[in-house]
Amino acid sequence: MSIVEEPVTETRRWVGQSVARKEDPKLLTGRAGYIGDVVLPGMLHGAVLRSPHAHARIVSIDTSEAEALPGVVVVLTGAAAAELVDPMPAFCAEPVEQRAIAVDRVRYPGEAVAAVAATDRYTAEDACAKIRVEYELLPALVDPVAAMEPSATRVHETLDSNVVFHRSLDWGDVDGDLARAHTVVRSSARWHRMGAHPIETAGAVASWDPYGQSMTVYSNSNFINFLPWAFAGILRVSTNRLRMIPCTVGGSFGSKHLITKVVSITGALSKACGRPVQYLEDRTDNVAANDNVGCDRIYDAELALAEDGEMLGLVLRIIDDYGAYFQFAHGQHGNAVAQPVGPYRIGSLRYDVSCVLTNKVQQGFFRGAGADPGNFILERLVDKAALEMGIDRVELRRRNFIRPEQFPYKIPTGNVYDSGDYEAVLDRALEIAGLDRWREEQERLRAEGRYLGIGLASCQERSGYNASEWWFLYGDEAPLPATSTPESCKIDVDAMGGVRATIGCPLWGNSPETVVGQVVAEEFGIDPSSVSVAYADSTSGAISAGPGGSRVTIMLSGATRGAARTVKDKMIRVAASAMEMDPEDVECVEGVFRAKGAPGTSMTMAEVAMRAHLFNDGTSEAESSGLVAVHTYDHPYFTPPTADRSDLGAFYPMVSHACHIPIVEVDPETGQVTLRAYYVVNDCGTVMNPALVEGQVIGGIVQGIGAALMEEYRYGASDGELETPTFREYLLPSMHEVPEIVLEHLETPSPFTEYGVKGAGEGGRLVAPTAIASAVDDALRPLGVWVDELPMTPERVVGMVADAQGRR
Amino acid sequence: MPDKVRIRITVNGTRHDLLTEPRTLLADLLRGDLALPGTHLGCEQGVCGACTVLVDDVATRSCLVFAAQLDGSSVRTVESLAGADGTLHPIQQAFTQEHGLQCGFCTPGMLMGACELLERVPEPDREDVEEALGGNLCRCTGYQNIVRSVCAAGRLMADEKTEQSGVRA
């Protein structure tokens, strides 16, 4: 690692400004080029037949009627597809094979059974309706606790148990802390599965060239420049004969990192007919079968505290319902142990996790990626401790916050927090919320029999993930070395002085072009609107893990700044040679290369660029013509995990922080929770672009409102059928559920990153659910309600009130 | 397959005389036959509103209407808003000024819904916007900036009008 040394007082012209978003014009005019907009000559359209059943044996499939339909070019069963493509890549060694189209047995409702390519989508869907599948139903595993029983039906016959992974790790003296504690607070909590549900579903266009044995794939996947070799493996194509082309992505929130099943199905169809094929999930495909489902956890948790409220130790026992497959392994728990102790000085931790397979679609990634329920349970425990010990909840937090002078701070698992000032964030949040006024309003309404509640949560947003988290919990032997998880940027300055940046990550709904423009502008002193930004395909050699784990602004800043400085330094040498000066005496100011302190002698960008391109005079023997640099920025600070996992190393060390204060009103008769106001103070280090960060935080909070109040996958208790296959049943927040959100920033720059930026992409959703739970508790305190399950739907709130009142 | 039907339809000011299958949805006609990809399909079930276009000036889910129903109608899509020289429509300008979009997938539906609202209510307030666009889903922005954008668009359009009448005077 390197500590970036720069004076905090450095004057910046573009970094930190609400620079206009470069991405907007194409997005606003319908010209952005999403996967659904890709049209190739001779392209066919795919559709997928999916299982209505949670668990069944496929007795037979008859595709003859479908194949006879005019316009149908190919029909693939799972067995036929298995001749063309290989199973999904797995992120750990547990032997759970998953094929994009099921062979012999379906293990969740919505699992693909057959796929069709036809001249148009309507015909492809007609053909799906004509495929006859005979199923023999098997018992559906819906309840993860029941699925853990040794006698339970197994989701995979090749496994001894549905518990596909179990690990219990202690860091610090957990038993000692439990023994010497004055109070041990205990909480059982339930965090149900929710889905990312971007408005654009996943899709791909695959074009197989049987002569060159090569494949071109357009898609809205993120990992085209990170794991293209994994896609090549599925598609049975040489890694150097696969070209993956990015498209503008209509939202992801983690769900489109891989989309391997979509790419596999599309690739198999193209291979089967030798023509380009487009397959776009419809909404039910996406809800039922995309890997966009987040955590599904049952917690049994304990927080040990000393008499004065000092937090000593934390015990988290977790059963996590992973669904039918385990492709992404326990990455969600690797992620959670980046910040299990939150912003507090908790000295010991027991993390005991069981990953259980059931007949549901497998977990993938969704904004928060495992840390979301972690924040929920921890803040629930802290609120409960405050209540049980009679200490004010604000005071209890204050007493336990890591202090500003303690950074960088190593938490028990080994992860490091870079910087922060949590008490300042809390104080400012209390101030802008006007807490006294709301307490008065609460009193006034209670007198009228109405229930107003004030929530509070102080949480972390670990950012800049390191891919090591996906596998470092697995196995007893030494784990793989820590991962560099890089991001690349190429900058070239053409002969006329035009600056172009080419980046490896796709546009996922965030603002990579704007950020890159700001950084280039900062380094050269030019206007960001003059910088053009392009997206690299997988043949470029760029390495890019892309957006995810609140990393992309951190990583793109580093990659872009590095490339810009390399090019600028060469331009300084070229200019110095032309002006017959020492490079040490030349500087670049506002796009002009000039003698330091003697601005009379100067060259424009264009003059220097032309010289470098066409009239290179051998400034240095090692330098050839042109102005191009690729900078690959590795994760700025990571250390390796130890073999015994007593120290997982620093892997997620840029840690943002926020305090949320939501105000709710709850109607205990109807169970309706209404947000009246919402206050946030956020610290994500140096704010790269205030308008864009605000957009990320507020968008995340509204997803958090969904998590708190509405969003939930529901499966039939006996048959396991999916009861929420469309947006009519799976409810997303609309304008009507959202209050005015008041947001402020404090900035404690990261010492590890360029410009001091930290992540901001997930924080809203990482904090809002637990903050709103706290508000509902506060509202219903007179009725004795304690919220330990999300989402707080009207039915659930009515039930909680009934339970608390002993009426149920 | 039933015979194709003939429809005469005006889209963004251009008249078309087409043969289409009776079951072709307006959204698919626009995106496919007419090569106008700005109208996006988010759910194809009429819930999300991403595919909203104006049919005879009324905001309409293009995933719930058959093209064959629209013989003689006039349709406006997001492609009708900006000038050929790249000048954004005031509604689009307002969305970029107020950061009312992130991934852009729901945006064409929001813009066309806003268009209808602003033609009815020139300077809408928050309640007006919620009433008009409350059925359009956005998963990125959290809506706050969309509401601001539409209100700001009303002001921008009012200012433009004042300027124009000022010029005429």
Automatic annotation (TrEMBL), chain A:
Keyword Iron-sulfur in record: no
Lineage: superkingdom: Bacteria
Sequence ranges assigned to domain Aldehyde oxidase/xanthine dehydrogenase a/b hammerhead in this UniProt record: 29-139
Keyword Oxidoreductase assigned: yes
UniProt-listed Pfam families: Ald_Xan_dh_C, MoCoBD_1, MoCoBD_2
SUPFAM superfamilies recorded: CO dehydrogenase molybdoprotein N-domain-like, Molybdenum cofactor-binding domain
Organism name: Actinomycetospora straminea
This protein's UniProt keywords: Molybdenum, Oxidoreductase
Gene3D superfamilies reported for this sequence: Aldehyde oxidase/xanthine dehydrogenase, a/b hammerhead, Aldehyde oxidase/xanthine dehydrogenase, molybdopterin binding domain
Name recorded for this polypeptide: Molybdopterin-dependent oxidoreductase
Automatic annotation (TrEMBL), chain B:
Transmembrane segment boundaries: none
Keyword flag Iron-sulfur: yes
Alphabetically ordered keywords of this record: 2Fe-2S, Iron, Iron-sulfur, Metal-binding, Oxidoreductase
InterPro entries in UniProt: 2Fe-2S-bd, 2Fe-2S-bd_dom_sf, 2Fe-2S_ferredoxin-like_sf, 2Fe-2S_ferredoxin-type, 2Fe2S_fd_BS, Beta-grasp_dom_sf, Diverse_Oxidoreductases
Keyword Hydrolase: no
Residue ranges occupied by any 2Fe-2S ferredoxin-type domain in the UniProt entry: 5-81
Cross-referenced PANTHER family: OXIDOREDUCTASE WITH IRON-SULFUR SUBUNIT
Protein name (database record): (2Fe-2S)-binding protein
Taxonomic lineage from the root: Bacteria, Bacillati, Actinomycetota, Actinomycetes, Pseudonocardiales
